[in-house]
Amino acid sequence: MEVQTWTFLIVGFTFTIYIGIAIWTRASSTNDFYVAGGDVNPLLNGMATAADWMSAASFLSMAGLISFMGYDGGVYLMGWTGGYVLLALLLAPYLRKFGKFTVPDFIGDRYYSNVARTVAVICALLVSFTYVAGQMRGVGVVFARFLEVPINVGVYIGMGLVFFYAVLGGMKGITYTQVAQYCVLIFAFMVPAIFISIQLTGNVIPQLGFGGQLADGTYLLDKLDGLNRELGFNEYTSGSKNMIDVFAITFALMAGTAGLPHVIVRFFTVPKVSDARVSAGYALIFIAILYTTAPAISAFARTNLINTVSNAPYSTVPEWFINWEKTGLIKFNDKNADGIIQYVANPSQNELLIDNDIIVLANPEIAQLPNWVIALVAAGGLAAALSTAAGLLLVISTSVAHDLIKKQIKPNISEKMELRWARLSAAGAVIVAGYFGVNPPGFVAATVALAFGLAASSFFPAIVLGIFDKRMNKEGAIAGMISGITIMTFYMIYFKLGWITETIPSASEWWLGISPEGFGTVAMLLNIVVAFVVSRMTSSPPAHIQKMTEEIRYPSNPNAKLI
Fold it and tell me: Which strand (E) or helix (H) includes residue 50?
């Protein structure tokens, strides 16, 4: 069967499962809608957390970044992995002990202030909409190639599906849908990796094939270094980025991970504090399967890509190249009119432009794997993007319905009406997310990296200080969050989006040599300094707040079920 036929069959089958689960687990109360009733099994929650966490950036773009950036792309791998460990060990159990629905809920109660709650809602919306733009873009990329529709049409299809199970099922429906999506995405990621590892190195384990030998006895990474040198690129295994920027990006991704509201809320869905720790451990194992495989896929794809298209006559390019050209994600510009593809580092001579986001999707085609494998990867990419998009949309809807309307505007609203507002908010969020998916500020991983910077500059300090510094008061937290998110947003708009100047400033103009993806570290440090100074210049929190902070940090009974 053709790839498109396989894609319709496999994607259609997985979509049917997702919709069926959403109908079966539809939310009937706000508790179901916000935290899935608070009784999700830790193993299932670990799988759902992994799916929620491993977005289109992890599935589609991380391997693409590493493939094109080589060693420098490792900052994304280190930052995202380290960030999840930071979240699991430093924050998750304490937040579960607090037992609220959302991150703004924690901040509003911990800092005894509706102003703090409102600032947190604004930050949650800004982070979530920036993040979801990357997910919807990823959905569009997959549909554009495998269903042969424009990227924008693909975004609209994804909007329709997410609208159905996010609005109907809430957190309960999303949780069990994400369990299914994890199974799909990890199977889709591993199958081609195993195939290609055997094909290139004879090793069935991709992680070992990454360091293995090719048929001619050359080590894969040595071969890749040589190919890159021949084309004028940096060696694959050597870095070229400013070390300050490397550390800044890594830590911004780590702190951003630990402050992501859609991941944090997953730890509110288990019955006990001890379950939060256990589910975090399960999630780390499930995440590690993909994250340890990504570098191998990057190397395999880069090797096959260069061998396939570099210095090849355009008239003889394989079918996959023509198919991806139709999407506009690969472009050949024959500058010297010789009909030969010149893929080199020199921009004035390079004739091939490749979107980073297609590497994982095109990898099976480049390696000439069976059509069903190619379609399976498409289904996996959609599962990764849709699972995270649903989690983000839930954060948006709960921030509006619970933290704004229920907690501030209409405190006496009925549960039925609150649930209705949550669903209306989710529907509105889907529409806005679709707009950002059609008009994203960059390719998927870059867009997502900016979201992590926003989370690092706003939520991470407020949460950490709220748990570990009982002297931190509302004035300090509010001033810190506003300072951090403001400077990060300005830096992102100025250096990444070019909305202030006619052209986007060059890297030579970055402050301290730090990229927009890494500036979240600077904004986070500013948040901490401002929060600390302001809190010490103003009055201490009330005694009951300080006592509550100590109780969060030292649970008297970690096995107690929390309501």
Answer: helix 42-53
Buried b (16+ CB within 10 A) or exposed e, 239-268: bebbeebbebbbbbbbbbbbbbbbbbbbbb
pLDDT of residue 561: 46
| pLDDT 10s digits, 176-209 | 888 998 999 999 999 999 999 999 999 999 999 9
Domain of 466, CATH number, reads 1.20.1730.10
Q: Is residue 156 assigned to a domain?
A: yes
Are residues 90 and 164 part of one domain? Answer: yes
Domain final position from 340, 364, 388:
364
- What pLDDT, on a 0 to 100 scale, did the predictor assign at position 465? 94
Q: In sequence order, what DSSP letters do the residues of 253-303 get, joined into one string?
A: HHHHHHT-HHHHGGGGSSSBHHHHHHHHHHHHHHHHHHHTTHHHHHHHHHH
Statement to judge: residues 102 and 205 lie in one domain: yes
Give the residue among 113, 298, 105, 106 at the shortest CA–CA distance from 197: 298
Range of the domain at 331: 322-364
CB atoms within 10 A of CB 323: 17
Distance CA 352, CA 328 (A): 12
pTM: 0.83
Which pLDDT value is given to residue 562?
A: 40
- What number is the average pLDDT over the span 14-32? 78
**Same domain for 349 and 461:** no
Q: State which of 330, 364, 398 marks the end of a domain.
A: 364
Answer yes or no: are the C-beta atoms of 86 and 257 closer than 8 Å: yes
Digit-coded pLDDT (tens) for 312-334: 899 888 888 988 888 788 899 98
Q: What span, in angstroms and rounded, lies between the C-alpha atoms of 225 and 215?
A: 17
**Same-domain check for residues 332 and 452:** no
Residue 232 belongs to some domain of the structure:
yes
The radius of gyration of the chain from alpha carbons, rounded to an integer in Å, stands at 23
Q: Does 265 lie in the same domain as 123?
A: yes
* pLDDT score, position 442: 55
